[in-house]
Amino acid sequence: MALAQAAQVAELLHRAAPGLATRTVPVITSGDTWPGSLSHAGGKGLFVKAVDLRLQRGEVDVAVHCLKDVPGDRPLPQGLAVAAMLPRADVHDVLLVPEGSPATTLADLPPGSSVATSSVRRRAQLLALRPDLRMLDVRGAVATRLEKLDGARRGLGADAMVLAKAGLVRLGLTARIRYEFPLGEVLPAVGAGVLVAHCRSDDEAATALLRRIDHPRTHAEATAERSMLGGLRGHCNSPVAGHCVTGADGRLSLRGLVFTLDGTRTAHAHLQAPGAEDAAGLGTRVCDELLRHGARTIIDSTARPSGATGEPGERR
Predict the structure, then answer these.
(1) N or C: which end of the chain has fewer CB within 10 A?
(2) To the nearest whole percent, how much of the chain has pLDDT over 90?
(3) Which Gene Ontology terms of cellular component type are present (predicted)?
(4) If you write DSSP's letter for every residue of 164-229 in order, what string do you get?
């Protein structure tokens, strides 16, 4: 999926600058090779660190990331800048079941069923909906996860799996989707569905080129979400969700949620701002409202791995 995402950025650059030559440089990161839970190894920031290091060294000119992988509790590495955010993909989470299963919704799963997901945010919200569920950890590429779900690779024994719809769309696997969770049931991760391009802050040519493919609406919405997450100091083990949308009148509306790991306690805030120029301020205000409702206590009740991010979901 990482290659597909890099190809998407390259295609937009080619449209913006016909004749531009690009080359994709694959990078194997410690997040790709770590066999255990990411929360025990530093979170999804592991996927970002190695790629950004290549950028700092001048070995590549642009780094492409899923925004939800980028750590939300610390600034970018020295000398790097966010130059573009692409139009946001679908942010919904979806339910998948093993081949041959008759289940079409979460409600169809028998009591005590097992659901596979690596995201603490998803786990908390699923348990809030169905406290009887048994949650299983799963890692690997999307195709590998589906093979495990179907039992082809030392099956998980899971009755269902929850993944991001955007990844399945990019891989042409939407036929596996049985149910799309409404945002009122499962709120997405901060930065969900957003691809971000980093470049060196002193690289004026790359910065100018990438700004031509930036999507201002997505950039504003993601800025509000990231401002909220940064203020919360949310980490890999904190079930934090946030979603900002732009209304027809240009107003921003940001909803934030913080959960205990078992989904039994929740802090919730939902505020608006006049427009994109107040995106960061909106995130700060939503953060403050969440803190007033006990978010700090909820977050501090979870162990904090070093260098973590707000969403340990599936890896591309």
Answers:
(1) N
(2) 71
(3) cytoplasm
(4) EHHHHHHTT-GGG--EE--TTTSPPPTTTT-EEEEEETT-HHHHHHHHTT--HHHHHHHHHHHHHH
